[in-house]
Specification:
Order of helices and strands: HEEEEEEEEE
Helix content: 10-25%
Strand order of the largest sheet: 1-9-8
Distance between the termini: 68 Å
Number of helices: 1
Structural class: alpha+beta
Amino acid sequence: MTAINRRRALTGSAAIAVGVPVLAACGADEPTATDPDDASASPSDASSSPSSPDGTQTPSGDAGALASTADVPVGGCFVVASAKIVLTQPTEGDFKAFSAVCTHQGCLVESSSEGDIPCPCHASKFSLENGSPLSGPATAALETVAITVEGDSIAQA
């Protein structure tokens, strides 16, 4: 049986002191505020304000529609958390849709008027034009979702 000497004990302690925080930073065991599957989150009430407690917004207008065109800012995006879809309007009148699930660790992205699609979990940013990653840690694009725009209503195709 090998005895543990001071050098081996200090080396092991240093590895634990450095390794545990690094591994903890990569984990996502706790539900996030933007996790629509979180049972502890209160459901959004359609009669409440357009902004829900989880940072996403509730669409206005037609019950069959994802959102109204007015909900999506020009140069920004609007998250429909219930459908896990993010709608974008890169330029006025040009609407696109992508999966709202970040390709890094599965968090929902957030609504924004800042010119990109932001993920609140690890600061990835995606293009409004094609869903490609602009900055990491995400390296894969958001999946494209087919939509139709009729009048001021945006629906999934």
